[in-house]
Amino acid sequence: MKKCLSIILAFFVLFFNCTPAFCVAKNDSQLIALSDIHSIALSVPSSFTITKDWHDISITKTTPLYDLRNHIVAYCVDIRNNKSNSNAYIIINAYFSDHPILQYAPEAISPYFNTSNKAVYLLAGTYFSEIDGNIKNLITNEIVSKSKLLSDFSSVTWVNTNRMTPSYNDSSPASTLGYDTQEKILTGVPNWQWTRGCTPTAVGMQLANLYPSLNNTNTISLLADAYHTTSSGDTYDGFVSSGTKKVIKNKNLEVPSYCDFTKTVCNIPRTGPTHNPYSTYRSEINANRAVVIGCSGASATTPGYPNGFKDHSITGIGYSYQTAGGSSKYVIVYTTSKNDGKVYIDIESGALGKYAWFIVRK
User: Fold this and answer.
1) In 3-state terms, what secondary structure has residue 10?
2) Which of 126, 124, 85 has the alpha carbon at shortest distance from 107?
3) Residues whose CB is less than 8 angstroms from the CB of residue 39 and which lie 6 or more positions away in sequence, other chains included
4) DSSP designation for 277
5) Which of 126, 215, 270, 300 lies deepest, with the highest CB count within 10 Å?
């Protein structure tokens, strides 16, 4: 996804604030006991459709996670389904918070599993370890100085936003942990591999769900042509709405009543939760319409995107909304890397960077 022209981008930067990955209290009395971390971890799989039948679960490793100033901020708990031998991992806030679950990765082993060095966690979708004062990226194996990362992440503010003191105990089943999960995944959206660009691929999946006659990968090429997508796969946001309408019209299909980002200025999408509320995303999914999520500076990583999404378009195919005193708001997406499958991302984690919904309604 190619973002705005530089002069326009400079204007918009004034209006958008960087979102920290998560917020913690630094009062040790607010730390969640390790036994309660384990209790939370064991309750998580049953709260998600993809792992709802996980009942016989073992914890295979618990890794404390630190920030760059050596404060413990979270725990990564690797678990195994003893029946199927499938793996998953959960990253849990080390402090009482409205959002105890920071990340959940079903059908995966955490990048921390095979390291014995101090584990470092900065933003959702990033995985590091500390070795002799340097920081190693566990996805790319790149080694950088700790001082450089301190500079790079200087905008991440750790503040006390504690508004609740949930009571967890070892014997509590998921229902007594305060979880109330509402989840929906669309079944009519194809999972396509990146072709000619992330935006035509992502919108192609969206249209295939809405218009059955477009459920073929030739739709990607039609969209790429209409968007004037470059040979390297970059698409200028200003062409997405008009280009999508052009493809639909040329196929003599029902003209959409809405086909655009949720809020634009001079055809450039406004980003962030104010202009792209989670409630709007959920309403679209509940109406059986996929949502394309345009991201800028996204840090989320998957096997298909080990260096992070960065500027990228993905297709929202569902949501998982949990309450535990506060709430956890996940989008479920196809990433345009087919082998990634369904990926859950906490919309409030900061992993999507600056994001905007692209919506098509008949």
Assistant:
1) helix
2) 85
3) 168, 169, 170, 171, 172, 177
4) -
5) 300
CA distance 162 to 159: 9
Token digits of residue 103? 């990340």
| pLDDT means over runs of 10, the chain (362 residues) | 30 24 42 86 82 90 90 92 91 77 83 92 81 86 80 45 24 34 86 96 96 94 95 91 96 95 84 92 95 93 88 94 63 91 86 94 94
Side chain identity, residue 135: I
Tens digits of residue pLDDT in 197-246? 999 999 999 999 999 999 999 999 999 999 999 999 999 888 999 999 99
Q: Which two tokens stand for residue 320?
A: 């998982």
Long-range own/partner contacts, residues 239-244 (CB < 8 A, 24 or more apart): 240/199, 240/203, 240/358, 241/267, 241/358, 244/203, 244/207, 244/360
Task: Find the angle CA(308)-CA(312)-CA(313) to the nearest 5 degrees.
Answer: 130
Residue count of the chain, please give it. 362
Strands, E, within 266-361: which ranges? 268-269, 291-298, 310-324, 326-334, 343-346, 354-361
What is the C-alpha R_g of the chain? 21
Helical (H) or strand (E) element with 227: helix 218-227
